[in-house]
Amino acid sequence: MESNPAIKSQGVFQDKNDNESQVQLTLCNNNKGNTNVILPVVKIGLYSSDGQLFVVKGLLDSGSQLSFITDELYKKLKISSFPKSLSIFGITKQASKTQMAVHVKIYSCTSSYNTEILCSIMTEITNNLPTSYFDKNEISLPKNVNLKKRFKRDPKLFLQYKEFIDEYATSGDAKMIDLKEYEGKMDTTAYFLAHHPVIRNDKRTTQIRVVFDESVVPKISWDETLPPDLYDMWKTFAESLISMPSFEIKRDLNFAEAETTDVLGFCDASNVAYGCAIYCRVIKKGGSILTNLVCSKSRISPINEKLTIPRAELNSALLLTLLIVKVHKILSRFINNVYIFSDSWVVLSWLKLNPYKLNNYVANRVSKINGLTKNFKWNFIESNQNPSDLISRGTTPKTLANSRLWWEGPEFLTQPHLSMQSEIESLENIPEVKSYVATTKAEYLPVLTKFSNLQKLQRVIAYVLRFIHNTKNKREKLMRNLTAGELDNSLNMTIKLEQ
Fold first, then answer.
1. Model confidence pTM above 0.85
2. What is the CB neighbour count within 10 angstroms for residue 115?
3. How deeply is 420 buried, as exposed, middle or buried, from its count of CB atoms within 10 A (0-12, 13-18, 19+)?
4. DSSP states of 272-327 as a string?
5. Which residues contact 376 (CB under 8 A, 6 or more apart)?
6. Rg of the chain's alpha carbons, rounded to an integer?
7. Could you tell me the residue ranges of all domains in the chain?
8. CA separation (Å) from 157 to 151, 160, 198, 207, 326?
9. Structural contact between residues 44 and 106, judged by C-beta atoms closer than 8 angstroms
10. Hey, CA dihedral for 127, 128, 133, 139, is it positive or negative?
């Protein structure tokens, strides 16, 4: 069906000599317009079996010989139907079948018109049509990619994935981008890497992980040969991993025999990585002290020129905060004290400042850390006693297996009384602190330069002051000549404005 042709001209010819018969001739000039077909849509009223009025949309097609109603609307009307099997054929002999039909009475929304029609019940009558054709086979889609809405089927997985992504964004490893910046730009190429979370159900803390590749720094692809320094690094690690001695990880924290239980957290960072480690210190009733590693967490430092070492240290402090809050929540009924350590004076100084004095990047993280650790105490520790230094700087598997610092913590944990440095040294120049400059804006009146005569300027200012006075005091208006007092006030105002 095409759009109606436009009628350009029309004429009627009549033979006057023949009164009994009349011949009419119509001349038409057709011009075919746009081939797009626009079918009218109307609003009509339908009543359900219980008398409820439904105002619905109806699509009018003058070329159709049948009427249809959607199964969804039929169920809402709650009216009786009857079997009526029809086979409906369209273009290219595409067939669809209907099994049921129903009699409905439609009402006009603007007049009293109503009529009863027979409608076949269909699941769907029409749908949105594309404005232009394209061949979907020409689009190169990645294979073996699950495009189903997996998160809707598994809300728990969605929450775990969201928590992981939020943590990555908070730590600076990832950032949100505005897709509108890339829309409509032909000179900008954007890539989207479809992915799905890798799940490790055997892990208690982080069940979703991301794998990083060191080769992205020198921009090496998979099939290229590693440069000598990376090759030697990988070879050394592989050989030391093979020769790594066997060891046992103690999981018994000895809570049953504990008189006092302390949880201690350490964090550290470098330009390569940052991480944290948490230890449990148990003082038994007999006086013996046992310390064990509870858990740890590490992150690769993002390749970002703006990420300074103090910022990386702050990210490690935030990572420690999030982890120690989880540990404290699980072991709260066994824990007596919680201590947190960092070897960065800058980070400890930031935590003492009000966040509004700091730049946004630092302020956001300081606010979150202080909010979660308001019941804990931050302390300073030397780098050589910080077990998280092994995370930030890295170590070999053999050294890690034999490291007492890593598995049991620093030596001062074995002392009956912990000697900690909780007083923060005042730094002269703390980075990331906002600079405030006080400025005053002098308002200059151009009226002072319009008159070269001081007496004339004095009288103009006096009349302006009189106008202000009369506006505020309508019952005590000054109407006569200027007085000496008004001229003196005008001169004082002129001097004040000039200064």
1. no
2. 9
3. middle
4. SEEEEEEEEEEEETTS-EEEEEEEEEEEEPPS-TT--HHHHHHHHHHHHHHHHHHH
5. 324, 338, 339, 340
6. 41
7. 1-126, 244-414, 446-498
8. 6, 5, 11, 10, 19
9. yes
10. negative
Name residue 364's amino acid. N
Quote the CA–CA distance of 472 and 481 in Å, as a whole number. Answer: 19
Pairing of strands 337-342, 258-269: parallel
Instruction: Using alpha carbons, list the distances in angstroms from residue 118 to 24, 46, 371.
Output: 40, 13, 67
Pairing of strands 273-284, 289-300: antiparallel
Residue-level pLDDT at 221: 64
Cβ count near 214 (within 10 Å): 13
- Cβ atoms of residues 77 and 46 within 8 Å: yes
1-126 in CATH: which number? Answer: 2.40.70
- Write down the pLDDT at residue 300: 86
Does the domain at 244-414 match CATH 3.30.70.270? Answer given as no
Amino acid type, 308: T
Q: Please, which residues bridge with residue 119 across strands?
A: 67, 102
Residues 6+ apart with CB under 8 A from 394: 272, 273
Residue 194, φ and ψ in degrees, nearest 5: -65, 140
Nearest 10 degrees: Cα torsion 154, 159, 165, 167:
-160
Residues of the chain with pLDDT under 50: 1-29, 142-145, 147, 186, 194, 212
**pLDDT for the residue 326:** 94
Query: Mind giving me the DSSP string for 198-232?
Result: EE-TT-SS--EE----GGGTTT--TTSPPPHHHHH
Helix axes 155-171, 309-330, angle to 10 degrees: 140
